[in-house]
Write a structure and sequence with these properties.
Distance between the termini: 27 Å
Strand content: 15-25%
Radius of gyration: 23 Å
Number of strands: 15
Oligomer: single chain
Helix content: 25-40%
Order of helices and strands: HHEEEHEHHHEHEEEHEEEHEEHEHEH
Bound molecules: (2S)-amino(hydroxy)ethanoic acid, manganese (II) ion
Length: 424
C-alpha cells in the first residue's frame, strides 16, 4: 500500500476526468452535437454500466438500491458515517455533456485519486448517482433523491408511469438496475454536490467557484384546456371556443407575470400541443406544461394562485380546464457551516469563489432533508445549459473537481469540524 501522501499535495487526474466526460457524453449522442439519455432508457442503461465500471476501477464497492440509485463507496478507516457526493447522468432532450455528469465523474475521480494514493480517509467517501433527476420521462424530477429523503415513498415511485406507458419498476428491471439495497442504507453525515452553474453569474464576475447556499423552489403543472373543435373558415371569431388560442394567451400571461415579478422569478412553457392538430381546424383541446420557479415560497404560491384564478375564469367562460401538479418543492437553504467549509477550502486552493443561489433544481436539495448539504458550482459559458452548446472551460472543470477532492477529504478526515456525526 503506497504511503499516504500529504492531502494538500493530492491532485485529481484532470486528463482522466475530461476523457471520461467526453466518453460519457457520447452515449445517446445525436448528429447535431447533443445527447439524450432519458431516465431508464437504453441510453441511460449504457451510461449506468459505464459508471459502474469506472466506480469499480476507482476501488469503490458498488451497490444498486431499489429505486435504481447507484452507490459507490470507498471504505474509510473508521466506522464514521460516510461523506457523500454525487449527482445524475440522465439528461433532458438534446442536452449538453456536463449537467449532472460532471458531478458524478468528478466524484469517481475523487475516489480513484484517494485509492491510488493509498489515502484512505477516516470516514468512507461515497458517490451517489440518482435516478430520474431531470423528470423529463417520469415526473416528478429528483426522483432517486426524493426516495432517499423520503419525500416520495419507494412504492409510489416504483409505480410511476411515463407518457409512453412504462413504469419505473418495469424499466428498472428491464435495464438491470432494479437493486435490492434500501435507498436509505447509506446514511451520510454530509452531502456535497458538484455541478455546473447553468447560469451566467460566475462567468460574468470572472469567478471560478460558486458556493451554493440555496436553491429556489419550483412548481411544475400540466394544463389541459378543452374548447370546441370547429371549422377554421366558417366559424366567426366571436363564436369560437378556441382551446389553442386560449392556451397561448394564458401561457403568455403567465410568462409576462414572471417578467413583471423580476429576478429570480421565472416561468417557462416548455411544451404545448393542440388537438386534433390540423391547419384548418380550430383546436378543440390544448395541453401545455408550465415550470414556475422562485426563491420565495410566497411568490411561488402567488404564481400558482394566478394560474388557478385564470383557469376558473376559463371554466366560467365555457371551457373545461384541468391542471395537474407534476412536481413541486419549496426553496431550500443549504447548511451554512458546510458552505463555510467549502469556502475555506476554495480559498486554500486559491480559487475565487462567491456564495450564490441556484436557479436550477438539484438532488442536493433533497439530500438537505437527510444531512447537512451544500453545492459547488463551476461556470457555464454564456450561462447556457440544457443545450448542446453547454460548455465549461477544461481548466475550470479540473479546478472544481480538485476542490471537491479536498473538501471531501477535509470532511472525511475531520468530520467534527462541521456538525460532528453521531458516531463520533
Ligand atoms: O430542471 C432543473 O432545474 C434541473 O435541471 N433538473
Ligand atoms: Mn438539468
Ligand atoms: Mn443537473
Amino acid at each position: 500500500m503506497a504511503r499516504p501522501s500529504t492531502p494538500a499535495a493530492l491532485a485529481i487526474d484532470g486528463d482522466r476526468l475530461l476523457r471520461r466526460l467526453r466518453e460519457l457524453g457520447e452515449i445517446g449522442a445525436d448528429p447535431r452535437g447533443g445527447r439524450t439519455r432519458l431516465a431508464l432508457t437504453d441510453a441511460d442503461k449504457a451510461a449506468r454500466e459505464l459508471i459502474v465500471r469506472w466506480l469499480s476501477e476507482a476501488g469503490a464497492a458498488v451497490r444498486i438500491d431499489r429505486i435504481g440509485n447507484i452507490h459507490g463507496v470507498l471504505e474509510g478507516r473508521s466506522d464514521l458515517p460516510p461523506i457523500a457526493t454525487g449527482s445524475h447522468i440522465d439528461t433532458v432532450v438534446r442536452a449538453g455533456a456536463y449537467d449532472g455528469c460532471y458531478g458524478v465523474v468528478a466524484g469517481i475521480e475523487v475516489l480513484q485519486t484517494l485509492s491510488a494514493a493509498g489515502e484512505l480517509p477516516r470516514a468512507s467517501v461515497a458517490v451517489l448517482v440518482f435516478t430520474n433527476e431531470e423528470g423529463v420521462r417520469f415526473a416528478p424530477d429528483l426522483l432517486g433523491s426524493r426516495v432517499v429523503a423520503e419525500n416520495v415513498a419507494l412504492e409510489d415511485a416504483l409505480a410511476l408511469h411515463s407518457a409512453d406507458g412504462c413504469s419505473i419498476d418495469e424499466e428498472l428491471r428491464r435495464i438491470g438496475f432494479a437493486g435490492s439495497v434500501s435507498p436509505r442504507e447509506l446514511r451520510p453525515s454530509h452531502f456535497v454536490e458538484l455541478h455546473i452553474e447553468q447560469g451566467p453569474m460566475l462567468e460574468a464576475e470572472d469567478l471560478t467557484i460558486g458556493i451554493v447556499e440555496a436553491v429556489q423552489g419550483h412548481s411544475w403543472w400540466r394544463v389541459v384546456i378543452e374548447g370546441v373543435a370547429n371549422h377554421a373558415g366558417t366559424t366567426p371569431m366571436a363564436l369560437r371556443r378556441d382551446a389553442g388560442a386560449t392556451a397561448m394567451q394564458l401561457a403568455c400571461a403567465l410568462i409576462r407575470d414572471a417578467e413583471e415579478r423580476g429576478v429570480p422569478n421565472v416561468a417557462t412553457v416548455g411544451t404545448i400541443t393542440f388537438e386534433p392538430g390540423a391547419i384548418n381546424v380550430v383546436p378543440g383541446r390544448a395541453t401545455f406544461t408550465i415550470d414556475m420557479r422562485d426563491d420565495s415560497v410566497y411568490s411561488l404560491r402567488r404564481a400558482e394562485q394566478r394560474l388557478h384564478e385564470a383557469l376558473l375564469r376559463l371554466d366560467r367562460a365555457g371551457y373545461t380546464t384541468h391542471a395537474q401538479c407534476t412536481s413541486r418543492h419549496e426553496p431550500v437553504v443549504f447548511d451554512d457551516e458546510l458552505c463555510g467549509l467549502l469556502q475555506r477550502v476554495a480559498a486554500q486552493r486559491g480559487l475565487a469563489a462567491r456564495r450564490m443561489l441556484s436557479g436550477a433544481s438539484h438532488d442536493a436539495q433533497m439530500m438537505a432533508g437527510v444531512c447537512p448539504s451544500a453545492m459547488i458550482f463551476v461556470p457555464s459559458h454564456r450561462g447556457i445549459s440544457h443545450n448542446p452548446a453547454e460548455h465549461t472551460e477544461p481548466r475550470q472543470l479540473v479546478q472544481g473537481a480538485d476542490l471537491l477532492l479536498h473538501a471531501l477529504l477535509e470532511l472525511a478526515n475531520n468530520p467534527e469540524t462541521c456538525h460532528a456525526p453521531s458516531s463520533l
